[in-house]
Design brief:
Length: 389
């Protein structure tokens, strides 16, 4: 256990606390058990280490990763028992989905040690959600996505701004001191601004590694897939990358991949929950995730430039950005007459020459234009929808 403490303290010492992700202040850190999920690379590990460094007594806390060799010989419950006997109060477990039967054992830790606060994170949203049902009465779950344009401005360019609501955006209340001309930085963000590790070298290579790990390890492990089926996931993502945004025809994709049509929708759901694609649904069922899939996009614009360079047409990039950013604070569904519907507001996305034709006669219709700095009437600049979290 001594090695675990040594590694944990080194990580805490090296953690930068200057910038916090949007979800940091939303987490109720007093909850006895907290689960933080999200795609690989969005900053979950840094977030929990920041909390330890800023708020806790280092002697009462311990951070471990479930991939540590320690767990080849000891169980999570053994660690918790020993830690509590040493006066431990706060246990942080990273990459929890890498630990076999993690949800059952976390449940035991929770029940046996009421004096212990537990925070666990997982890169694979899929496996966490599968196990979270066992912990539904115990764990408070939070889901985290990549950087907003607002966060990118703060982390990469030290330009700070408050969070704006959707109502602020459509009523032209977005105003950022120190950002006279947002479009050059906005175009940078679209290509390399969604993941915090873009601050480091070899961003494209690292992003491709995350994609491969998600498809070759996280999803197959969750769905008990063999290696050959894992390869089908990569083929499916390649098809999506070349075609987005597109209306899914699962039968034709199934023929190309030589698998059952029924499997395609399952595979798409796995890839979506792992943070690599986004499926735009209609409003049937009234709850996000229940409607019929109308279009499939790559999850964020950085993935477009990494995976679909030949298909990085600007219309695709614009729609992907709008969907990715607004879904963090709203339920977004397909519009029967335009691009997107949020509550009762209709949004048509385009360039600066986009006209009003598609939304004529719609009471709450808005034109969202790229390549403009300021809005007017019902015309809103695209970049402003990145200021919502």
């Amino acid at each position: 256990m001594e090695k675990l403490f040594e590694y944990y303290r080194k990580l805490v010492r090296e953690t930068d606390i200057e910038f916090h992700r949007y979800i940091y202040s939303k987490i109720n850190w007093n909850s006895r058990m907290i689960g933080l999920t999200g795609p690989r690379g969005v900053g979950k590990t840094t977030l929990v280490l920041q909390h330890i460094k800023e708020k806790l007594n280092l002697n009462e806390a311990l951070y471990v990763t479930a991939e540590d060799f320690y767990f080849a010989s000891y169980r999570l419950l053994d660690l918790a028992d020993a830690f509590v006997k040493m006066g431990g109060k706060y246990l942080f477990i990273d990459e929890i989905h890498k630990y076999k039967d993690w949800s059952k054992e976390l449940k035991l830790v929770y029940d046996y040690h009421p004096e212990l606060n537990i925070v666990f994170t997982g890169s694979s949203v899929l496996d966490i959600n599968k196990g979270a049902s066992d912990l539904s009465r115990r764990a408070v779950m939070y889901q985290m996505q990549g950087l907003s344009f607002r966060e990118y401005l703060q982390l990469f360019h030290h330009i700070s701004s408050e969070v704006y609501t959707l109502q602020d955006m459509v009523t032209h209340k977005v105003d950022i001191l120190g950002l006279e001309h947002p479009l050059p930085l906005f175009h940078e963000y679209l290509q390399t601004g969604y993941y915090p590790f873009a601050l480091e070298d070899d961003y494209d290579i690292r992003l491709r590694q995350i994609i491969n790990l998600t498809l070759e390890s996280d999803i197959p492990q969750f769905a008990d897939m063999n290696v050959a089926t894992g390869r089908k996931l990569k083929q499916l993502l390649a098809i999506i990358a070349k075609s987005v945004p597109f209306k899914p025809n699962f039968s034709s994709i199934a023929k190309v991949l030589e698998i059952s049509r029924n499997n395609i929708s399952d595979y798409c759901l796995y890839i979506e929950e792992a943070g690599l694609i986004a499926q735009l649904r209609d409003a049937t069922g009234g709850v996000r995730g229940l409607g019929k899939v109308d279009k499939i996009y790559l999850d964020n614009t950085n993935l477009i430039y990494n995976l679909a360079q030949e298909n990085s047409n600007i219309g695709n990039v614009r729609e992907t950005f709008f969907l990715n950013q607004t879904r963090a604070f709203s339920d977004v569904v397909t519009s029967p007459v335009s691009d997107f519907l949020i509550d009762e507001m209709t949004f048509e996305i385009g360039g600066k020459k986009k006209g009003q034709k598609q939304i004529q006669g719609i009471e709450k219709g808005f034109i969202v234009k790229d390549d403009i700095e300021q809005g007017f009437m019902n015309v809103i600049p695209l970049w402003q929808f990145g200021m919502g979290y």
